[in-house]
Input
Amino acid sequence: MTQIQSRDVPVIELRHVDKHYGDLHVLKDISLSVGKGEVVVIIGPSGSGKSTLCRTVNRLETIDSGEILIEGVPLPQDGRQLAALRSRIGMVFQSFNLFSHMTVLDNMILAPTGVLKLNRKAAKDEAMALLDRVGVADQAHKLPAQLSGGQQQRAAIARALAMHPRAMLFDEPTSALDPEMIGEVLNVMTELAADGMTMLIVTHEMNFARRVASRVIFMDGGSIVEENTPEAFFTQPRSQRALDFLQSIRN
Amino acid sequence: MSAPTIRDRLYEAPGPRTRRRVALFTVLALIGLGFLLFIIIRQFARQGQLEARYWDFFLKWSTWRYLGQGLLSTLKAALTAAVIAIALGFILMRGKLRQNPVPRWIATAVIEFTRGVPTLLLIYFFFLVLPRMGLNLGAFWRITLPCAISASGIIAEAFRAGVNAVPKGQAEAALSLGLSNTRTFYQVVFPQALRFVIPSLISELVIVLKDTTFAYVVSYADLMQHAKVLITSHDALVSVYLVVAVIYILINYALNRMSDRIAQGNRRPTVQRQGGAA
Output
C-alpha cells in the first residue's frame, strides 16, 4: 500500500454515518475516529446502536450514508478487497463464534493458512504461542463446546490475533459469560491494550472501561451523546443522559 | 443408561403409575398382535398358501441368486439416483441461497417443479416423450434419472434448511477473519450444515430406493421385476411378494437405523455453549 502511515491518519474513522432498519434510525450522523494505539470504549443502554456501530467497521452491517475509512482508505464494498480488509481488522463477538466443528487449534490456523497462505507448521507454532499467551494452550486439541465460556472467548481473541490485525473490534465480549469468567477475558484485553493494540470496544464493564479506555464514547438512541476521557466521564459527565445512565447502572 | 433420545427431552420420565399402565398396554398390544397374526396364518392355511409348492423353491440356491441379481440392480439404480440427486440438490441449494435473484428464481422454480411432479410422471416422460425427441436412453437411465430429479428438490430444501440452521455468527466470524464467501461456505458453514442434514438425507434415500420399484414401467430388471418372473414361473404370488417385502423392509430399516445413529452421534459436540442474546 502506498498510503503514508503518518501518526495523523486514524486507524478507524467514521464520518457522518447513518443507518436505518426500516423506519428505525439506528445510527444517526456518527463521526468517530480511533488513532493508532488508542482504546476507545463505547458504552450506552441496550438498543443505543453501539453494537451496530461496531459491526459497521468491518462491514458486517452496511451503512446508508456517510463514510468509513480504515487507515485513511474507504471501506471496500465487497469482494477480495473487503475480505483483505477484514483480515486486517480483528473481531471478537459476544457469542464467541468459534467454529464448532473444528478443534481450537484448527480454528486458529484456518485463516492464517487459508488467507495469509502461511504453511501449516508455521501457523500451528504461532497459534500455540498465542493460545499460550491467553492461557488456553492446554485446550488446543479440544472442540469449542468442551471449553468453558471464558476459555472459548480467550481462544476467540487468540484466533483474531493470529491474523496480526491493525485494530481489534470487541462487540460485548463478556456479556455472554458467567460472572466468574469475565475477569479472565478482561485481563487478556487489558494486556492487549497495554501492548499498544488499537481497540474499539463495546462493553458494559464500567470498571474495565475506566481503567483501560483512552476515550469513552456514550451512545443513546443511535447518536453519540458524549465523548470524554474515562476519568471525566465517570466522575462528572457533561450530559444529563450519561448521568442518568451511570446512576441507573450503579443502583 | 443409554444415550438420551428425543423422547427423553420432550417428556418427563414416567412415574410408577405410568409405568404400570405402559406395561399393561404393551401386554394387551402383544396379545392383539398375536391374535392378528394367528388369523392371517389361519386364513393363509385355509386358502392353501402354506402348501409346500408355494415355498419349497425358496430352498433352492438359484431362487436366491435370481433375487440377489434383482436386488443388485435395484441397489445400483438407487445408489446412482441418490448420488445424482444429492449433486443436483446441492446445485439447486446453492442457486437458491444466492443474492442474485436470477439464479435464485431459477432454482426455486426447479425445486418446486421437482417437488410437485410425481415420480411416475417423470418416468413416463423419460420413457415415452424423450425417445420421440430422439433421445434414447437405456432402461437404467430411464429409471435412475427420473428418480434422481424427483428427489433433488427435496434434498435441495433439506440442504438449505441445514445451512440456515447453522448460527449466523459462524459465517460472520469466518468473514471477519478475511475468508472469502466461498471459503466461508465450504469450510465453515456447509460442514456444520451437513451434520443437521444427514438424517433427512438418508430418509430421502429410502424414498429413492422405493421409487426404483417403478422400474417395471421401463422394463429395468430390478428386484420387483425378478420377483414377478418368479411369481409367474412358480405360480406363487403371496409367498414371493412377502419375501420381497421383507427384503425391502430390512434394507430401509438398516438405512433408518444408520440415520438414527448419526443423529445420536451428532448431538454432543455440535451445540456450542452460547449464553445471552445473539
